[in-house]
Design a protein that fits this description.
The structure is a homodimer. Chain A is an alpha+beta fold. Helices cover 34% and strands 21% of the residues of chain A. Chain A is built from eleven helices and 14 strands. Chain A has helices at 20-33, 66-69, 81-92, 129-138, 171-182, 188-202, 234-244, 248-266, 309-328, 332-348, 423-439; strands at residues 3-11, 43-45, 58-60, 70-74, 103-109, 116-123, 225-233, 276-283, 294-301, 364-369, 377-378, 381-389, 398-405, 408-416. In chain A, the strands form three sheets. The first copy, chain A, has a six-stranded mixed beta sheet, sandwiched between helices. In chain A, strand 4, helix 3 and strand 5 (103-109) form a beta-alpha-beta unit. In chain A, helix 6 packs antiparallel against helix 10. The first copy, chain A, is globular, with a radius of gyration of 22 Å. Chain A starts with a strand and ends with a helix.
Chain lengths: 440, 440
C-alpha cells in the first residue's frame, strides 16, 4: 500500500467539447490498439513475485494493457464532494498490481456543475509523489484554447531517471536521504544503533526537542483509506503569516493544529500535551561550501493544547523557529543523523508488532510542497484544484500534504479509514480556522 | 481471490420512485448510524492475519462499517453494456478485506434506459455462490407493487448455518464433497496417492474417459478479471434440446463449445482435439438405499473440433450420456473417488509452480444451477437479468456458470483478464450459436 496519488478537478469552458466523454472513450479505445507509452509509465518490475530480489529492476512491459491503467468512472448522484471523496477514498484504498507498471489513472465524470476530475495513483517506488505531480502538471497546457493536449502517458519524458534540479522538502526526499545515511529498513536494528552513536558524536544538541503524546492518530492502521480536501487562498494565508511574523508554513501548521484540536475534542480523544508534527524542510547546513541546501526533518508543536487561534499560531511559530535554528547550526552529516533519529519510528513501522509498543516520535506528517504557479488547462478544461494523496503508515495514520497551485493552497488529508472516522470534518474545520485567525 | 459474485440488472416501472438514488443515499446514511446486520452478513474471521489458524472461526464484527460494505457507483457515459462489463470486471478483480465481513454490494446507476444494477461479491468461505444467489433472490419481492422491500443485509436469515435441503450440483458442492473425501488442499500430495489407490480399488472404470488438450484457457492467471454475460430464453433452449434428443444442459454445453470454437479460432488458438468441460451433476448412486442424490463431476467433450452446430450438439449429447452412465453405475464412494480424481488438478492449482507442468484434466468448468422461476422485484424495479460470477483458478482461467431465472438462462463468463482478451466476444457468439442450432 505504498502508493501516492493526486486528485485534479476541472471546470468546463466555452472551448471545452460538449462531447468530451464520448471523444475520450473513442480516443482511449484507439490508443489501446496502438499506443507508445513513454517511460516511466511503461515500466514494470522484473521480479514482481519477489520484491526484495537482489536482481530487481524496472523493465518495459511488453504487454502494456492501456485499458487496465486508464479508466473511466462516474460519480453516483448528486455527484457532490461527498461522492467524489468516497470514490477517491475507495480507489486509494486498493493496492496496485505489481505484475504491471504500478499506476492507474481514472477520468471521473458525473460531478456537479458539469465538472470532471482525474484521480491518479502511482507506487512511490516508480515515481515519488512530488515528481508525479510535476509530470502531471507538465502534461497540461497553460493555454485555455489548446484543445490538443496529449494524455500524460503518451508524452516522451524520461523524467524518472533525471536528477532533480532542486531539493524539494518532501517526505520521500527525507526517506531517501535517511536511507542513504542509515541503510535500508530491514537493517533497522543496526541503523538505530548507528543513529544513537551518531547522536553521541554530535552531542546533546541532537536530543529530540519535543515529546509526542500517544493519540488515536498513532495506531495500527487498516488497508482502507479516507481522503478529504480543502482549498485556501494563498493571499489569505500570506496575510495572516505577515501579521503574526511567521512563515506561510507556520500558518499551514497552525491551521492543521487548530483543526485537529477540534476534530479530536469531538472524538473525546484530544491528548493533554500538544500534538507534534514531523515536517520536512530545506535547511542550509553550516559546513556546505557550495551554499547548497539539504532536506531535514523538524519536529514542530501543533499547539493543540491552546484554544485561541492566534495564540496557537504564536506557539507554532516559536516552535518551528527553535527547530530550524537547531538544524541550521548543524553540519550536513549531523542534519542527516538527526533526521534519521526523527524518522526511525516511521521506518520501524514496517516491522510487524513494533507499532503500539513504541511511543510515537511524532503524531502526524505535515508536508508542504510547491506546485504550478499559473493556471493549467486540459483541452479547455480549467484545473481548479489539485490535491496530493499520500501514505499513512502503521503508527502514523494521518498524512497531511499541502501543495500550492495558482494562488491557492490545496490540502490533502489521507487517513486510515478505520482509526480516523469522519476525516471529512478535519478538512471542513481547516477552512473555518483560517477565518478565526483572520479575525484574531 | 476466492470470491464469487452476482450481477442483477433491473428496469424501472410506474411504481418506481423517481428519486430512488437520493432516497437510497439517505437510507444508507441512516442505516450506517444504526443498523442491525443479520448473520451471515455481520460475520468476520477471528484470525484474519492467519487464515490457516487452527482456531479460525467466524465471529460477529463489533465495528461493522456499513458504508464500507454497501456502496453507490455509477457508469461512465453512455452507460451501455460495455461500461457495465468493465466496471463489474474491475470490482470482481479486487480482493476482499479479511479484516471485515468478506462481502461488498454495489448499487450501480447511470445505466442506459434508466436501469439500475446491483453487483454483489462474497468470499466463498462465508457463503457459496449458489447460497448467495438464493439469499439475494429471497430478499426480493414477487410483488411489483411492494415498495418496502428491505435491503438484503438487514433481513434475519441465519441461512449459512442451515443445511441445504437439496443437493445442487455446483462447483462448490463438488469441492466440499471431494475435500471431505480426500482432505484439505495442503495435504494434496497424500490426497492424490489416496485417489490413485482408490482408482485401483475400483478398477479400470475410473480411468478418465477423455484427454483434455493444452489450451490458452489453461495457463497461470493474473489477479485481474473480465466478465461477460448472455441471456437466452429457456424455451428456445428447450426446443433445441427436444428436437436433438438431449437435455437442457447438453444444449448449454454445446452453445459454450460452439462459441469457444469461434473465439479460439479467431485467436489462432483452437486445439486440434476437442475441449473438455468439467460439469458438476447430480447422480443417483447404485448403492444408496434412500434413493438420494450425490453431486459428482463428469467430463464432457465440447466438440470444438466439429464445425456444424447440429453435429456439435450430437457429439456433446453422446459424450455426456456416456459420462453419466459411467457415474450411475458407481457406488457413492466410487463417485467421490472419481470426482476427486477429476478435481485434483484444480486443487493442485493452489500449489505454486504446479500449473503449466501438469497436463490439464479438463479445459473449462461449466456449471448450470437452478434459479428463481418467477419474476422478482426490488421496490418496483423489475429484475430482468441475474448473472453469476465465479472463480477462475491457476490453470483454469475460464469459468462459465449458467443460472435460470423466470424463463431465461443467464450465462456468466468469468475469466482471467490477461490470458483471455476479448472475453466479451465469447458472450456475443453464445447468443449467435443458438440461432444456428435452431436453423439446423
Amino acid at each position: 500500500m505504498m502508493h501516492v496519488g493526486a486528485l485534479l478537478e476541472f471546470s468546463p469552458s466555452k472551448a471545452t467539447s460538449k462531447d468530451f466523454s464520448r471523444e475520450l472513450r473513442e480516443e482511449l479505445s484507439a490508443l489501446a490498439r496502438s499506443v507508445t507509452v513513454a517511460s516511466p509509465w511503461n515500466q514494470r518490475l522484473l521480479h514482481p513475485e519477489m520484491l526484495t530480489n537482489p536482481l530487481q529492476a524496472w523493465v518495459p512491459d511488453e504487454h502494456f494493457d492501456l485499458e487496465y491503467h486508464v479508466r473511466r468512472s462516474a460519480l453516483a448522484s448528486p455527484g457532490d464532494e461527498r461522492e467524489l471523496g468516497s470514490l477517491v477514498s475507495r480507489l486509494h484504498g486498493t493496492p496496485l498490481d505489481f505484475q504491471r507498471p504500478p499506476w492507474e489513472a481514472h477520468f471521473i465524470e458525473g460531478l456537479e456543475k458539469k465538472r470532471i476530475a482525474i484521480y491518479f495513483k502511482v507506487h512511490h517506488a516508480l515515481i515519488d509523489g512530488y515528481t508525479g505531480m510535476r509530470l502531471l502538471s507538465k502534461s497540461l497546457s497553460t493555454d485555455p484554447n489548446d484543445l490538443d493536449t496529449p494524455l500524460f502517458f503518451a508524452r516522451a519524458e524520461g523524467e524518472r531517471r533525471r536528477e532533480r534540479e532542486e531539493q524539494v522538502p518532501t517526505l520521500d526526499a527525507l526517506l531517501h536521504a535517511v536511507r542513504d545515511q542509515i541503510g535500508v529498513a530491514k537493517d533497522i536494528g543496526r541503523a538505530l544503533v548507528k543513529v544513537v552513536r551518531g547522536m553521541r558524536d554530535h552531542g546533546p544538541k541532537l536530543a529530540l526537542p519535543l515529546q509526542a503524546p500517544r493519540s488515536v492518530l498513532n495506531q495500527k492502521i487498516s488497508r482502507s483509506r479516507r481522503f478529504a480536501t480543502q482549498q485556501i487562498s494563498l493571499d489569505r494565508i500570506k496575510r495572516v503569516a505577515a501579521s503574526a511574523g511567521g512563515t506561510l508554513n507556520d500558518v499551514v501548521l497552525a491551521i492543521c493544529g487548530a483543526a485537529l484540536r477540534r476534530f479530536l475534542l469531538e472524538l473525546g480523544e484530544l491528548p493533554e500535551r500538544p500534538l507534534v508534527a514531523m515536517v520536512p524542510v530545506n535547511v542550509r547546513p553550516k559546513d556546505d561550501p557550495g551554499g547548497g541546501n539539504a532536506v531535514g526533518a523538524i519536529l514542530a508543536s501543533l499547539a493543540t493544547d491552546v484554544e485561541d487561534p492566534r495564540k496557537c499560531l504564536d506557539a507554532v511559530i516559536a516552535s518551528t523557529k527553535r527547530a530550524k535554528e537547531q538544524l541550521q547550526g548543524m553540519s550536513k552529516g549531523a542534519i542527516m543523523q538527526y533526521s534519521g533519529l526523527v524518522l526511525a519510528p516511521l521506518m520501524l513501522s514496517f516491522i510487524p508488532g513494533a507499532v503500539g509498543r513504541l511511543r510515537p516520535a511524532f503524531n502526524v506528517v505535515v508536508s508542504n510542497v510547491p506546485g504550478p504557479e499559473t493556471p493549467l488547462y486540459f483541452r479547455g478544461w480549467r484545473l481548479d484544484e489539485m490535491y496530493p494523496l499520500s501514505i499513512p503508515f502503521h503508527g502514523y495514520g494521518l498524512n497531511i500534504t499541502v501543495q500550492s497551485y495558482a494562488g491557492s493552497l490545496n490540502f490533502g488529508f489521507t487517513g486510515c479509514r478505520d482509526t480516523l472516522p469522519h476525516l471529512q470534518r478535519l478538512a471542513v474545520y481547516s477552512g473555518e480556522v483560517i477565518e478565526k485567525m483572520e479575525r484574531a
